[in-house]
Design a protein that fits this description.
Length: 156
């Protein structure tokens, strides 16, 4: 029913993938894109933005890629998704231009409760929470085998 914008979802999934696999060194964008089934150029821009925001660190060069800029337990999901949310978050679901707390529509207070719950979810949870504690291994993003990594890196 409620869904994140696709860029926010890619950002969240990519950060989790990187957290799970950075133990082997920086994770190339091409590998993350292949794992998520996301367009590499699109994901590259998304990861670059997360780098400028301090969520990720980038390493240049042939063995370059991304790592987390902090421990997974220190990165809140809100820091990952909020930059990619539309500014219409407070738009009235009934389409009213004058819907606000002092002039609410019939759905205002219930919808506000839903928004506040979603905001708390993303503010309270960390990357480590999604991975079951500090990143200890894959939970759903298998890292390609050595031959696949070389093929992915060669393609990128």
């Amino acid at each position: 029913m409620l869904a994140l914008p696709q860029t926010a979802e890619y950002a969240l999934r990519a950060v989790c993938y990187i957290a799970e696999h950075e133990v082997d060194g920086p994770v190339p964008v091409s590998e993350v894109a292949a794992s998520l089934g996301a367009p590499q150029n699109y994901l590259s821009k998304t990861l670059h933005r997360l780098g400028t925001l301090g969520v990720l660190s980038s390493v240049r060069g042939a063995r370059g890629g991304y790592t987390l800029a902090a421990r997974g337990s220190d990165i809140r999901l809100a820091a990952i998704i909020e930059p990619f949310l539309a500014p219409t978050e407070h738009r009235c679901i009934m389409g009213r231009t004058q819907c606000r707390e002092d002039v609410p529509c019939g759905a205002h207070w219930r919808w506000k409760a839903v928004r506040d719950t979603a905001r708390a979810f993303f503010t309270d949870l960390t990357v480590a929470d999604l991975l079951g504690g500090e990143a200890k291994g894959p939970i759903g993003f298998p890292r390609p085998g050595a031959g696949q990594v070389d093929a992915v890196r060669a393609a990128g």
